[in-house]
Amino acid sequence: MEKIKDINRLNDVFFKSLLGSKERKNLTLNFLNSILNKDEDSYFVDINFLDKERLPDIETGKVPELDILAKLNDGTLINVEIQVTKQEYFSKRSLYYWSRLYAYQLNKGQNYDELKQTITINLLNFNYLPYKTCHNSYHVYNDKTQDMLIDDLELHFIELNKFKLSDIRKLRQAENWIAYFSPKCTDEQREAIAMNNPVIKE
Questions:
Q1: Does the pLDDT of residue 127 top 70, yes or no?
Q2: 158 phi and psi, to 5 degrees?
């Protein structure tokens, strides 16, 4: 059978089909555990995809247009977004989406200690942050001591155009996935990555 080449992996439909389907949740779990650098003791082992259309709406408020929304086995809420077109205020948009998800967890009468960590992962096909590194993450820290106040907020920005492919055999798990989505990575290079990574091969 002839192999399908030149797939646009940043296509919205393809992306949601690949990582937003319960039939392929093993791929999504591998992607999340890799990007979030989870070790064996903290691996996410199950995922439940949520209905993106059922987010409680604020009357006359702006409605988030989510790509992938899911709850993990420990209750963590996760939102994965793909963004192709450059947006000047994307960090504000990302924080707005995060805040809506965080508030989404509680119903009337529930206690604040029931709130779970909420994570947003943004895959960007444009340069946005003033850093050379392609993957940057953000939390809430004390300005003086750098101690984390709470780990409930976690935002990731992955700028695919900044990814530099070096020795394929030495790629870390997260780098395998970044390379897979990066427009700079050729089909031949992806095939080489797949030889060393069963999940990417799948």
A1: yes
A2: -115, 110
The domain segmentation of the chain, as residue ranges, is: 12-201
Strand 148-159 with 77-83, pairing: unpaired
Which pair of structure tokens corresponds to residue 52?
A: 């993106």
The pair of three-digit structure tokens given for residue 27, joined into one six-digit string: 């791929």
DSSP state of 54: G
Burial level of 77, CB count in 10 A (0-12/13-18/19+)? buried
Q: What is the pLDDT of residues 63-76, one digit of tens each?
A: 667 889 999 999 99
Report the distance separating Cα 18 and Cα 28, nearest Å. 8
DSSP state of 139: E
Structure tokens at 86: 């450059």
Helix axis angle, 25-35 to 173-181, nearest 10°: 110
Task: Find, among 35, 44, 3, the residue nearest to 201 by Cα.
Answer: 3
